[in-house]
Specification:
- The structure is a single chain.
- With 84 residues, this protein is mostly helical.
- It has a domain of 58 residues: F1F0 ATP synthase subunit C (F1FO ATP Synthase, Up-down Bundle).
- The chain is built from three helices and no strands.
- The protein is elongated.
- It starts with a helix and ends with a helix.
């Protein structure tokens, strides 16, 4: 991947496009890490208190959806910079 980016810079791609590619990768990585952390914490909480598993699950789904929406927005903005 690093070699591909170096070749793009050498071929005349602007530094903003390289930055947009890195930002898109960072947004996806951050969202995946955040959703994984939410999932692991929710499972641990459900194991400790099974009687509130439904409330924890609904809160987990809502938080994961919000993180996914923010990540999708970030990726779209980065792709707009990349291709425009």
């Amino acid at each position: 991947m690093f070699l591909t980016i170096l070749l793009q810079v050498a071929m005349g791609a602007s530094l903003a496009k390289v930055g947009a590619a890195f930002a898109a990768c960072g947004a996806v990585f951050g969202a995946a890490w955040g959703i994984g952390k939410i999932g692991s914490t929710a499972l641990e909480s459900m194991a400790r208190q099974p009687e509130v598993a439904g409330d924890i699950r609904s809160s987990m789904v809502l938080a994961a959806a919000l993180i996914e929406g923010i990540a999708m927005f970030a990726v779209v903005v980065c792709f707009l910079v990349l291709f425009v």
